[in-house]
Every structure is written in C-alpha cells, then in structure tokens.
C-alpha cells in the first residue's frame, strides 16, 4: 500500500484521470487583465480626441474644403459614439451619480449643441429647396428666382453666425473642479466604484469631448456661413472682431461655384454653353450641400443619444 501511495505522488502526470495544468495557466492570464485601472474605451476615445484636436488645429492654418469638412464631422460623430459606450459602463454611471450638478451642466451644454445642429439642418434644408428651384429657373431663363436665391443664401449665412455665438458660450471653468471633490466628502455614504483619480480622468475625457464639440462646430458653422455670405459682409465682420483672414475664410469650392452663379446675370442673353456651365456648378454645389447635411444629421443623432444617456444617469442618481 505504501509503495502505491509513493508511486502516485512521484508520477502524477502518469495518471490519465488527472486534469491538465491548462486551467491554472488560463486563470493566471485572466488575473493579469483584471487590475487594469483605465477601461480600453478610455484609451480609444483619447485617440479619437487627439484626432479631433489635430483636425481643429489644421483648420487654423488651412481653409476647410468640401472634403475635409465632412471628415471633421465624421470624427466628431465617432467620438460621441465612443462617449456613449463609456456612459453605459457601470463604473461611469456610478461615478457620475456623485456629481449631479456637473451632469446637469453637461446636459445644458448638450442641449445647446442639439439646438444648434437642429437649426443648422433646418437652414440647410431651406437652402436646398431654394437651390432646386433656382436650377429650374435658370433653365427657363427666369432671373427673378435667381435674385431670391441670392437673398436666401445671405439669410442662411446670418442665421448660422448666430448659432456660432450661442455655442461659444459653453464654459467648462468650474466643471473639472467638481470632479476633484473626494468621494468621502459626498453627501452619500456609499463607496464609489471608481477612485478619485479615475473620476478625474473620466471628467477630463468628458470635458475634452464637449470642448472639441464646440471647436469643431464653430469651425464648420463659420466656414459654411462665410461660404454663403457676401464677401463684403465677411470683410466687415473680420475687421470688427479682429480675427485673422483664415478664421473667416469660407470653403473655396463653394465660393467658386457661387461666384459663377452670381456673375451670370441677364440670363435671356446668355448662350446655351454658359447656362449649361452654370447648371453644372449648381449641381456640384448641391452635392457639397447634401454631403454636409448628411453628416450633420448623423452628428445631430449622436448628440441626442449622448444627452439621453446623461439624462438616464441623472435620473438614476435621484
């Protein structure tokens, strides 16, 4: 009996009934991934934030084009989609419940963004309708519709400029200080799932998302407003606000297309080739407008989804 006992201890791998050692190895690998302080989504959104920041910095030295303008809005949409994934994490929801005043401030900012993009879409839709009708008028050599179109695009420019001033009022001065308050100082005695350091990191990420939403929106709205506004009006605005020429410059492709339309004049005396050329410019311009409208609608929906998740967090905290 003793010999059998010693043999079973000396040669454990000889026993076919014994389980392999793989479970313990897999358990060891699994334990390595658990103590990670930052969620992978935080790293992902930081990369997207850096991409947005690079885009906004490039707009300060280079004017926007009909291609890179939608790119900036697409980056903004993707960042908000990742932001929504972060808001749905239990850790995030638990941490934000301890800062209801800060969440309410975020809700106020998000409402401004939604209102701005909603009104922007309404203005663009109105311009598209005028754009379609003026193409028909050009084919019929009706100059009255062309005059109406010129007035409508200037009206659009002024409406969008008002949206810019509203978005620029968003301020994050006090927000980050609220996340520096330790959890133990909260009125609730429950322990937060996140440490103070994690809360500060989360707060910094959220503030970056909101701040870059302002920067991207201002760059896009300003460029569109300057593109459809008259050159004289744009110059007066630049002098009064003391900005550089680059900040007030519109989208070059749109301005070229509009310049040809503005200079057509006296349609009844124009030849077929000139009218055809202008109509081609109008179709190209329509594609630019539709591209901006499409990506703005996606950003608009992403902003609504972000606000809904913030509202849910605030409701659960009460």
TrEMBL record:
Organism for this UniProt entry: Pisum sativum (Garden pea)
Protein name, as recorded: DUF241 domain protein
Biased composition (Polar residues): 10-24
GO annotation terms (biological process): root development; shoot system development
InterPro entries given in the database record: BPS1_pln
Region (Disordered): 1-26
